[in-house]
Amino acid sequence: MAGKRTPLYQNHVTAGARLVDFAGWDMPQQYTSVKNEQEAVRTAAGLFDVSHMGRYEIRGPAAGEFLQGLVTNDLGRLRLDQAQYNLLCLPDGGIVDDLVVYRRAGGWWLVVNAANREKDMAWLRQHERPGREIVDHSSDVSLLALQGPRAAEMLPVEGVDLAAVPSFGVGSGRVAGVPSIIARTGYTGEDGFELFVPTSHVASVWDVLVEAGATPCGLAARDVCRLEAGLRLYGSDMDQDTNPYEAGLGWTVKLGKGEFVGRQALERIKAEGPRRQLVGLGASDRTIPRHGSAVSLGASVIGTVTSGTYSFWLRRGIAMAMIDAGSASVGTTLSVEARNGTGRAEVVTMPFYRGSARRAVRPIG
């Protein structure tokens, strides 16, 4: 393996993780089994290394105005120490990336997808103007995700009251004695925290969290958890050829906030209605839908599976699929290609699973 490595690479090797390439990074796919790691997330707490994701800070008196003109959601709704799910869009409405924006006293922070780090930075630089500074913290600040119903009790913190940090809230304190930013955010559907930790101390923080009872988890468990929670994955469920309304993320688009990149196209798409729609599928029998599988209604192919897997927790195959808009409502049975032939799946309401996450169906938006 010759990919990029996070500061915790040696920790993963020592723990016996199975490493795979993900967006050019050598990342742990699993340590024991996906089933065991997912069970830890759903019943106690799982610990993920997500330092492959990008961490940027936007500073300066015009930083908020700058970002407001790029993202689809309304940053004016954010108070200090709050986070917001967001999208960057092209002028034609296609999605550049999905990200989380954090409003902090010293500036605005962004966490972007690992596969889009360079692309997103170039997009920010392309629109950069005097009065703001873009700082890349991806090397000096690492990112951990502690996720599960017992995450709060396993997190050794000082200087912050975790009970006072709401969903999509942000606090500052010491984690295992290390000054850190603590955000009540995540990608699993469970309560938990994403920890911004100085890279020089992240290995020791990781070890302390494992000693406290957190189970190291790989990207495979993270993927099935996020799919069960109905959370989209960039590059699978959306991309530059997908607009927010097709991806079921129209709630993140605030057309009334003023001008931003893609606004005119999105206004038109909303008025006309999207051509496609992302739906949830609950499989029957032993069907396991996979990415790229054709989805049919009768003899007509109406779409394609964008994300699919077998959920050990739900004991069935689940998937998201992009289908022709209006072609199949909730409760409709469709045919789905599978490794063992053609199977059946019913259109269902997402999320497939609601966990311990202390958030509304739609976070601050």
Walk me through this protein's architecture.
The chain is of the alpha+beta class. Helix content is 18%, strand content 35%. Among the domains are: 9-51 and 139-228, Probable tRNA modification gtpase trme, domain 1 (Gyrase A, domain 2); 275-365, Elongation Factor Tu (Ef-tu), domain 3 (Beta Barrel), CATH 2.40.30. Strand 5 and strand 6 form a beta hairpin. It has a seven-stranded mixed β-sheet. A six-stranded antiparallel β-barrel has the order 15-18-17-16-19-20.
In short:
The protein has 365 residues and is of the alpha+beta class.
How would you describe this structure in keywords?
alpha+beta; Elongation Factor Tu (Ef-tu), domain 3; 365 residues; Gyrase A, domain 2; 7-stranded mixed sheet; 18% helix
Q: What is the H-and-E element order?
A: HEEHEEHEEEHEEHEEEEHEHHEEEEEE
- Radius of gyration over alpha carbons? 20 Å
User: What proportion of the residues form beta strands (DSSP E)?
Assistant: 25-35%
User: What is the architecture of the domain at 9-51 and 139-228 at the second tier of CATH?
Assistant: 2-Layer Sandwich
Give the strand tally. 20
Task: Indicate the mean pLDDT.
Answer: 95
The largest sheet has its strands arranged as 10-11-12-13-9-3-14
CA(first)-CA(last) distance: 41 Å
| CATH topology grouping of the domain at 9-51 and 139-228 | Gyrase A, domain 2
Tally of contiguous helical segments? 8
Poorly predicted regions are none
In helices, the fraction of residues equals 10-25%
Assembly form of the protein: single chain
Which CATH C-level class of the domain at 9-51 and 139-228 is it? Alpha Beta
Outline the biggest β-sheet.
Answer: 7 strands, mixed
State the CATH superfamily name of the domain at 9-51 and 139-228. Answer: Probable tRNA modification gtpase trme, domain 1
Principal-axes geometry comes out as: globular
> What would you call the structural class?
alpha+beta
